[in-house]
Write a structure and sequence with these properties.
The complex is a heterodimer. By secondary structure, chain A is mainly alpha-helical. Chain A has 2 domains: 165 residues, Orthogonal Bundle (Helix Hairpins), CATH 1.10.287; 131 residues, Alpha-Beta Plaits, CATH 3.30.70.20. Chain A is built from 15 helices and 10 strands. A two-stranded parallel sheet of chain A has the order 1-5. In chain A, strands 2-6 form a two-stranded antiparallel sheet. Chain B folds into 4 domains: 207 residues, 2-Layer Sandwich (Nucleotidyltransferase, domain 5), CATH 3.30.420; 108 residues, ATPase, nucleotide binding domain (Nucleotidyltransferase, domain 5, 2-Layer Sandwich), CATH 3.30.420.40; 74 residues, Actin, Chain A, domain 4, CATH 3.90.640.10; 136 residues, Sandwich (Substrate Binding Domain Of DNAk, Chain A, domain 1), CATH 2.60.34.10. Helix content of chain B is 29%, strand content 29%. Chain B has 15 helices and 28 strands. In chain B, the strands form 7 sheets. In chain B, strands 1, 2, 3, 4, 11 and 12 form a 6-stranded mixed β-sheet that branches. In chain B, helix 6 crosses helix 7 and helix 12 runs parallel beside helix 13. The chains are: A mainly alpha, B alpha+beta.
């Protein structure tokens, strides 16, 4: 309970901690992205400042906390949980790991139980597989005035080299769960940096696309759940050629629904199928209201100096 | 409220030492105090090494002999256990008695031991005494355990050439928190700081995790193992899911049954009125019981390798036993014990929500693992043809403890041999008394540790200004069926109709299994606790813990009761 309290009530925070994302993930290439003087030089990553760990865990939902994608299967979640436990368990990290491990345990428990996970997904507006605009950063937002073109990363082609993130860190972010980069903020850096980043891509997977096409592409590139058959299947997939898929998608929506298209593609908030958005927003709101009272109380308690070491 | 008292580091509190312990010189050693044997192991920088005593033994008898002023334990004593046993001067099996009161059936079954175990049957600790120069010299289980811990510590210090402070101790899974405090007390008496108390099968699980990482670097595949550990005093079962050096305990089950029960059943079989041997506790009685015990023990050992054994013993009081016992007889008289073992396995698999076909390895360790019937019953219960090989049944637990000692001391190994972790679960549920005489669990059984859970309660009466928080551990529905851990009073609840004030109780267990109970009052609409929150480290009850609850009931009846509130989310 305390965990969800934190993650929900702190939703506005994540931006500041985006950089910290790298610290909670375990894939190898991140080493060179660690800040100077970071624990990278140590043999173990344990024994961190409590503040740092709490900060990284705040503002995250369970999926972000475990560093897994929303559609991860139990196997993936288990593996992520174990890897994180290896870093933060009090046996390794000392007493400072206590709070963080509590959150991990809670997140793990919820995500590993089908019914709890469903409830939780509903509460954060992440209906698995359904497109949602809960502000979790799956789609890009715009810096400054709208321009005719925007950047789009074909995640199918992306090899996860992080060159773009390196050159234009305000524009691109790296999705640790999916192992590829994507655009976080259109024109987040100056044009020169953006040019360099686009050119730096070894597989040329960064495309300039018309702003009208952008929302559709960003929607389609997200992994969609596959139908599961018994214990097989599940998992997720996305169109092999996202541009082709976008074309047929546009055609379809155009046929079905005249005139909607142009309006829906101006701002990311409106580009989603309206129903999904409404549903997600409503459930999120309800949950926020129900939770904030109860949880903030708890959180205040938590921050009270019961025990010296717990206070930041 | 004496809140600051709980933040003062007590002898068992995890304090700053842990942080400074990341150097090699501070590596915690692993100690396995068995009911009959104990051993010490340490991570020597590349592997686990069992330490040997001056007689080149890795396994040392867990007993203490009271002779003169200085008692001596099985680590250093040059005398044979068998000799001491006949004189009433040797005290052993203390792991079965530690933290138990004299109404406990385990204590009663210990009255046939060749020293004095006196019970009054009123819920106090039993009197335990050794015969020294024809005087019964009283002692306590804690003292006896502390004496051989001191010897183990001295032995390790000489061999490792450094002072030893931090230890990881293995304990039976069925130990309640009160018993754990007694073990911690014994460690404190011996000048040792308990870094971790590990249920024995979980220590074995950690060793298994290490063996699996070194054999198989593919971290993705998960293996489920069932660990059955049966020694002289206790039988424990654990189910663990292992992948990439992480051993995630799924469930634990345990009971105070072990080789000692087999031994007593066998003694009764050999001499039906063996219980009456000790009526006067004279020197001759002690000697007779001692002789019978030694002979029976030898017979059981022989039956592990041969199908029949000839028991021939003269008890010195005119009684002579001359009997041939075959393995079938032995198995028959111990059927109850074996049934209980099988039921523990079934229960553990059930708690872990694991089917036998999901179990890839079945590990049987402990002194009783040599008994053919034990092996076959574990195999048949788990529906397996073969048992896991590659572990020394007597050394597995202590080796796991040494690994945990190295991991929890912050050591790492260039070859990844210490890239290990064990994720423990609570062996028993913990909760408080509410809704009348009911036990309301707040942290359920098999909850991953560290754990923190909370529950909201409310007052049972209008204008109730005070409430008692009585904390229990166990599985029973009624509080009497559980172990009392402690109690405290919440005061200054604003006057309101019943059901209005919210009393929030938070239980927090950290990785070293320290339990803290927090409780505070909230009024509807307010986000701040009305009064300072109470934070109490448990258990707080000392001996005779069964009494306190009754006394509270006598003094307050139901006036300070609590009832549960159903969550409003």
């Amino acid at each position: 309970m305390s965990v969800s309290a934190v993650s929900i009530s702190q939703f506005s925070l994540p931006k500041a901690f985006q950089v910290e994302d790298h610290f909670t993930t375990i894939s190898k290439p991140i080493w060179r992205w660690r800040r100077q003087g970071s624990p990278a030089s140590r043999i173990r990553c344990g024994k961190r400042e409590a503040g740092e760990m709490l900060a990284t865990s705040m503002g995250k939902n369970y999926y972000e906390l475990l560093g897994v994608s929303v559609d991860s299967n139990a196997q993936k979640i288990k593996q992520a949980y174990r890897n994180l436990q290896k870093k933060y368990h009090p046996d390794v990290a000392g007493q400072e790991g206590h709070e963080y491990t509590l959150k991990l345990n809670e997140a793990y428990k919820v995500l590993m139980r089908g019914n709890l996970r469903k409830e939780y997904d509903a509460s954060i507006g992440e209906t698995r597989g359904n497109y949602s605009s809960s502000g979790l950063g799956r789609t890009s937002s715009w810096n400054g005035p709208l321009r005719p073109q925007g950047l789009f990363v074909d995640e199918n082609a992306c090899i996860g080299c992080r060159e773009c993130v390196h050159h234009a860190s305000s524009t691109f972010i790296f999705d640790e769960a999916l192992g590829c980069a994507r655009v976080k903020l259109q024109y987040g850096d100056d044009e020169q940096k953006i040019e360099v980043s686009v050119d730096s891509c070894p597989v040329n997977c960064i495309h300039w696309v018309e702003k009208e096409e952008l929302p559709v592409l960003e929607f389609l590139i997200q992994p969609q759940p596959k139908e599961g058959f018994g214990i097989f299947g599940g998992g997720w997939e996305r169109p092999a050629n996202v541009f082709m898929a976008a074309k047929s998608f546009n055609k379809q929506t155009y046929n079905e629904n005249h005139g909607r298209n142009s309006r829906a593609s101006t701002v990311e908030e409106e580009e989603t199928p309206a129903q999904a958005k409404a549903r997600a927003d409503a459930s999120r709101k309800i949950n926020m209201e129900a939770a904030s009272g109860l949880f903030s109380r708890f959180w205040q308690w938590q921050n009270k100096p019961f025990w010296g070491e717990k206070v930041e | 409220m004496a809140e600051p008292a709980y933040t003062v580091a007590s002898d068992s509190e995890t304090t700053g030492e842990e942080k400074s312990s990341s150097t090699f010189s501070e590596t915690a050693i692993g100690i396995d105090i068995g009911t009959s044997q104990c051993s010490v192991a340490v991570w020597n920088g590349s592997q686990v090494e069992l330490l040997k005593n001056t007689r080149n033994q890795k396994m040392m008898r867990s007993y203490v002999t009271f002779k003169d002023e200085n008692p001596s334990g099985g680590v250093s004593s040059q005398l044979s256990n068998e000799q001491d046993m006949l004189s009433g001067a040797a005290i052993f099996n203390m792991k079965r008695l530690i933290g138990r009161v004299d109404t406990d059936p385990v204590v009663h079954s210990s009255k046939s031991l060749p020293f004095l175990v006196q019970t009054l049957g009123i819920g106090v600790r039993p009197l335990i005494a050794a015969l020294v120069n024809n005087v019964w010299r009283s002692t306590t289980p804690e003292e006896v355990v502390a004496i051989f811990l001191v010897e183990l510590k001295a032995m390790a210090e000489i061999q490792l050439k450094r002072p030893i402070k931090n230890v990881v101790l293995t304990i039976p899974a069925s130990f309640n928190r009160f018993q754990l405090t007694r073990i911690e007390r014994a460690c404190a008496m011996a000048g040792l700081h308990v870094l971790r108390l590990m249920p024995e099968p979980t220590a074995v699980a950690l060793l298994y995790a290490q063996q699996n990482t070194s054999q198989n670097t593919n971290t993705g595949s998960e293996k489920i193992a069932l660990i059955f550990n049966m020694g002289a005093g206790y039988c424990d079962v654990a189910v663990t899911a292992t992948a990439g050096g992480v051993s995630q305990i799924k469930a634990l089950a345990g009971s105070a049954i072990g080789g000692e029960d087999l031994l007593q059943n066998m003694m009764r079989h050999l001499l039906p009125d063996s219980e009456s041997l000790l009526t006067s506790h004279g020197l001759d009685d002690i000697k007779s019981v001692g002789l019978l015990r030694v002979a029976t023990q030898d017979a059981i050992h022989s039956l592990s390798s041969q199908t029949t054994v000839q028991v021939d013993v003269e008890l010195g009081n005119g009684t002579k036993i001359c009997k041939v016992v075959d393995r079938g007889e032995f198995e028959e008289i111990n059927q109850d014990v074996f049934d209980k073992c099988a039921s523990l396995i079934i229960q553990c698999l059930h708690d872990a929500k694991v089917d036998t076909e999901d179990v890839s390895d079945v590990i049987v360790v402990g002194g009783c693992s040599y008994i053919p019937k034990i092996k076959s019953l574990v195999k048949s219960t788990c529906k397996k043809q073969e048992l896991y090989k590659g572990m020394n049944p007597l050394e597995a637990a202590v080796s796991g403890a040494a690994l945990e000692g190295a991991v929890a001391s912050g050591l790492s190994d260039p070859f990844g041999s210490l890239d290990l972790l064990t994720i423990q679960v609570t062996p028993l549920a913990i909760g408080i008394r509410a809704d009348g005489n009911n036990f309301v669990p707040i942290i359920p059984i098999s909850t991953t540790m560290p754990a923190q859970k909370d529950l909201i309660f409310t007052t049972a009466h209008d204008n109730q200004a005070e409430a008692l928080i009585i904390v229990y551990e166990g599985e029973g529905k009624k509080v009497e069926e559980n172990h009392l851990l402690g109690y405290f009073k919440i005061t200054g609840i604003p006057l309101a109709p019943k059901g209005v004030p919210e009393i929030r109780v938070i239980l927090d267990i950290d990785a070293s299994s320290v339990l803290r109970v927090l409780a505070g009052v909230l009024m509807p609409g307010s986000h701040q606790p009305v009064n300072p929150v109470m934070g109490v480290r448990m258990p707080t009850v000392d001996d005779g813990h069964g009494w306190c609850a009754e006394a509270l009931n006598r003094a307050y009846g139901s006036t300070l009761d609590l009832v549960t509130v159903h969550k409003k989310i």
